[in-house]
Design a protein that fits this description.
Blueprint: H1 10-18, H2 21-42, E1 51-52, E2 60-61, E3 67-72, E4 77-82, E5 86-92, H3 99-106, H4 109-115, H5 120-141, H6 145-148, E6 152-153, E7 160-163, E8 169-177, E9 180-187
Antiparallel strand pairs: 1-2, 3-4, 5-9, 6-7, 7-8, 8-9
Helix pairs in contact: 1-2, 3-5
Organism: Prochlorococcus marinus (strain NATL2A)
Protein name: Possible 4'-phosphopantetheinyl transferase family protein
Keywords: Transferase
């Protein structure tokens, strides 16, 4: 986390005042970083980036600016920017989760069958991977996690995930980097075979 928070818009500052202190800090941090990164890429000032990023809603750019998605965990922020729709998610690989319980609650019978004969460590790794892929897909969809996480299906090692109720299909890219695992969901017909990842 930077030593000081980066600039955000006056509208975003009003949101910070309305949020609980801890959530307001994360909101300010993530929106400030998003504006800073896009400023470095475009040459515009951070406050000139045409961004609307209300709390709890997918961030939006002005028409012609493409699509963005972001995700954060305890010590990392992942920002995705694409000409087509995009969803991203990131988690620490060492995050404590109850893999079997989480899988039974949110995943399909087939997905649960995949982890039955795995060791606890292997099961945790696969469940965490499946979770970030599904959450990235939900963000691509611009849906709500609670209503859609169990609707997205991803078979281990597949390059695609699909929504069993709505029929959506997305191309997914999942990778580990250092102590994190992350996923990116793109349009099914995206010609991107491997997204460009920049680390700062």
């Amino acid at each position: 986390m930077p030593s000081k928070l980066l600039p955000i818009s006056s509208e975003e500052k009003k949101w910070v005042q309305k949020l609980a202190p801890s959530r307001g800090l994360i909101y300010h941090f993530s929106r400030g970083c998003l504006r800073h990164v896009m400023s470095n890429i475009t040459g515009l000032g951070p406050l000139d980036i045409p961004l609307k990023a209300d709390p709890g809603e997918p961030p939006l750019l002005a028409e012609g600016w493409g699509n963005i998605s972001m995700s954060h965990c305890s010590d990392a922020l992942l920002i995705g920017w694409s000409s087509g729709k995009i969803g991203v998610d990131i988690e620490r690989k060492d995050r404590e989760i109850q893999a079997y319980k989480l899988s039974k609650r949110f995943f399909t019978q087939y997905e649960n069958y995949e982890i039955e004969n795995l060791s606890p460590c292997q099961a945790k790794e696969l469940v965490l991977k499946r979770w970030v892929i599904k959450e990235a897909a939900v963000k691509w969809q611009r849906g709500k996690i609670a209503n859609n996480i169990n609707q997205w299906i991803w078979k281990n090692k597949s390059s695609f995930a699909h929504h069993k109720k709505l029929g959506h299909k997305v191309k997914v890219y999942e990778q580990n980097y250092d102590q994190w695992t992350y996923a990116i969901a793109l349009d099914e017909d995206s010609i991107t075979c491997k997204p460009i990842i920049c680390v700062d």
